[in-house]
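User: Can you help me understand a structure? I only have the sequence.
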Amino acid sequence: MVIWHQKIALYRDIHSQLHALEDACPHKGVALHKGEVQGCHLLCPYHGWEFNGRGECAKIPYFPPEQKLPLAKARSYPVQEKYNLIWIFPGEPNLADSTPLPKVPEYENPDWLRVPIPAHFQAHFSICNENTMDVFHGFLHRGLQGWFDPVLLHLSTGDGYVGADYRVSYQGWITKWLGIGHGGDQVTTRTVSIRYQYPHYHSSLEGVSSLYLMRLPIGKTETKSFSYLFLKLPLPKWLLKFIKPQLANLIWRFLFKKFLDQDVQMVESEQQTYSANPQRHYVEVNPAIIALQRVIIQQYDLFREKPR
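Assistant: Let's start by predicting it. Here is the structure, written out as tokens:
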């Protein structure tokens, strides 16, 4: 996998313990992910050098056992599993313990339907982030019975943080089916709350839905993300219990993927225009987007100031 140009080899040892190493053997630079796992070690596919989970060279097959090993070490990354996801900390290892993972209380709650949503953008992560914070682009989704008439009610900022509350309106059969409103021609007004705590998002819709979005920047023009969308559907609990996986897949494929596909098209179009002319002047009027841009710039400045 790749996190902001850093290629990382993930492997699970004989004890099912996860390890993350720089995907380059310190001997010849060969990609370690092309190797194999033996016991607790990852073997380089070129010469069979073995590396433990700390990235230390533990064995060279053509050296006698008593031979002193070279000081060859691949960088290791803190890694853990939670919410059925693998989390890698790509920064300074000593900061990993003080950087908590997002809390997802709905994950174990049987009252919520969990819908996994993967996404892949050929665009810089900042452009993707602005799309997530920008509720005013409901115009794009008007053909899918998306939201309309958005109003920014409240904006708050902090250290690596932006929070925005929008009042939005819904109308149509999807509104009724998702439990947002009454459906039909009747307009339902709700408040959408979006919270960006660098580098992840959480948004909620008045107890009806909750979305956790984890952003993975790969390079300057490529970004992946993974989301958990939680819904409270107006269905009997006994029925929901038996059809959760199938229902989650249907909701993703035939409903929310259509929204995402439209967003991907817009985000990638924005990136293409910027790449063609980085000096182009843009005009932004949404205070939430401006606040988000400031946070991203602040994080970049902090990154540049850190000794490396």
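Now, to help you interpret it: The chain is about 25% helix and 35% strand. The two ends are 22 Å apart (CA to CA). Let me know which part you'd like to focus on.
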